[in-house]
């Protein structure tokens, strides 16, 4: 089973990287509002049970993939083709 | 009777770069400084531990996030839990925050630029094992060199830390966007401290400042006191 973890700077947390991206996009002529930069982690989880896999990935997020003080995370699960 | 020589361990992670300077500085201040490799599961008999600066594990994911799971860090956490003295410098501070041994987190500098220069600091507290040789409100000059030194705590956490007087050092001018210019904090018990400036690089007036020696010799004093107290 494949899992995608999206890690984002929490709402209200200053994101200087996002601000730099935002101002570059504006310079290029794009009409953008706020830009925020996060991180994507693609994982393969050895489990056929979506609930079990999700719980496992949640533990990964809590322990390592995100720092709860400044980051929020979202987990997307997808069946691996052929499973 | 001569005063005992405290034994201070300097943890070495892959990617550390200030470990030798830390070892040298502690030795120059009459401590017996020894390296401890990150894969060690037990610490040798030590009176204090220093986590030096650098880029452990390439700073992958978040700085300090991987290093905190090094086998030696479990031993450091156990050492700290028993009241052992632990000082984290720069990357060491980042690791201690990620490990939950110190409050807050270090983020990318607000400017997005690497900062490398001498910075003025104000000592907020001198009743800690890391600042006993300083004077209250004393201004120190110690260099920083970091890309991720912007310390952050949310309002609730920050207020708690202020109430418990856990902010030990502040920048006397804006350096990296740190909340309320925080440069160094201690844990609630007061035996673990982290700071972004590098005291081991400020050991000689010839190199700009010897103010770093005040921090490290405070630690050496406190480590010696541990021996005398039979801890």
Please write out the topology.
The complex is a heterodimer of chains A (83) and B (231).
Chain A: E1 2-9, H1 16-27, E2 39-44, H2 50-65, E3 71-78
Antiparallel strand pairs in A: 1-2, 1-3
Chain B: E1 7-12, H1 19-28, E2 32-37, E3 48-51, H2 71-81, E4 85-89, H3 91-98, E5 105-107, E6 115-123, E7 139-146, E8 150-152, H4 155-163, E9 167-171, E10 182-186, E11 192-195, H5 212-228
Parallel strand pairs in B: 1-2, 1-3, 3-4, 4-11
Antiparallel strand pairs in B: 5-8, 6-7, 6-9, 9-10, 10-11
What do you see in this structure?
The complex is a heterodimer of chains A (83) and B (231). The model of chain A has no long low-confidence stretch (mean pLDDT 92). Chain A starts with a strand and ends in a 5-residue tail after the last strand. The longest helix of chain A is centred in the C-terminal third of the chain and has 16 residues, at 50-65. With 83 residues, chain A is of the alpha+beta class. Helix content of chain A is 34%, strand content 27%. Chain A is elongated and about 45 Å long. Chain A has helices at residues 16-27, 50-65; strands spanning 2-9, 39-44, 71-78. Chain A has a three-stranded antiparallel β-sheet, with helices on one face. Chain B is an alpha/beta fold and 231 residues long. Chain B contains five helices and eleven strands; from the N terminus they run E-H-E-E-H-E-H-E-E-E-E-H-E-E-E-H. Chain B has helices at residues 19-28, 71-81, 91-98, 155-163, 212-228; strands spanning 7-12, 32-37, 48-51, 85-89, 105-107, 115-123, 139-146, 150-152, 167-171, 182-186, 192-195. In chain B, the strands form two sheets. Chain B has a nine-stranded mixed β-sheet with strand order 2-1-3-4-11-10-9-6-7, with helices on both faces. In chain B, strands 5-8 form a two-stranded antiparallel ribbon. In chain B, strand 3 (48-51), helix 2 (71-81) and strand 4 form a beta-alpha-beta unit. Chain B is globular. The chains are: A alpha+beta (83), B alpha/beta (231). The interface between A and B is medium-sized, with 10 and 18 residues.
């Amino acid at each position: 089973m494949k899992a995608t973890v999206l890690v984002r700077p929490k709402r209200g947390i200053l994101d200087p990287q996002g601000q730099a991206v935002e101002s570059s996009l504006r310079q290029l002529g794009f009409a953008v509002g706020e830009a925020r930069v996060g991180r994507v982690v693609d994982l393969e989880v050895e489990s056929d049970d979506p609930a079990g896999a999700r719980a496992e990935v949640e533990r990964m997020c809590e322990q390592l993939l995100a720092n709860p003080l400044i980051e929020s995370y979202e987990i997307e699960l997808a069946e691996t083709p052929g499973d | 009777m001569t005063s005992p020589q405290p034994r201070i361990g300097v943890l070495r992670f892959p990617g550390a770069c200030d470990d030798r300077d830390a070892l040298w500085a502690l030795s120059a201040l009459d401590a017996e400084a020894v390296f401890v490799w990150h894969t060690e599961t037990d610490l040798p008999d030590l009176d204090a531990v220093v986590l030096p600066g650098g880029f452990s594990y390439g700073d992958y994911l978040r700085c300090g996030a991987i290093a905190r799971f090094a086998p030696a860090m479990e031993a450091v956490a156990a050492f700290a839990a028993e009241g052992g003295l632990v000082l984290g410098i720069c990357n060491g501070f980042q690791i201690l925050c990620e490990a939950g041994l110190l409050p807050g987190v270090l983020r990318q500098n607000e400017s997005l630029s690497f900062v490398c220069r001498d910075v003025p600091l104000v000592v907020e507290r001198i009743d800690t094992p890391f600042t006993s040789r300083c004077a209250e409100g004393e201004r120190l000059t110690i260099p920083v060199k970091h890309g991720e030194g912007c310390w952050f705590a949310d309002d609730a956490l920050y207020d708690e830390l202020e109430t418990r007087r856990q902010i030990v050092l502040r920048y006397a001018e804006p350096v990296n966007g740190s909340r309320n210019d925080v440069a160094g904090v201690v844990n609630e018990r007061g035996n673990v401290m982290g700071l972004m400036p590098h005291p081991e690089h400020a050991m000689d007036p010839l190199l700009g400042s010897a103010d770093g020696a005040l921090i490290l010799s405070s630690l050496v004093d406190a480590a010696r006191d541990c021996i005398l107290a039979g801890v």
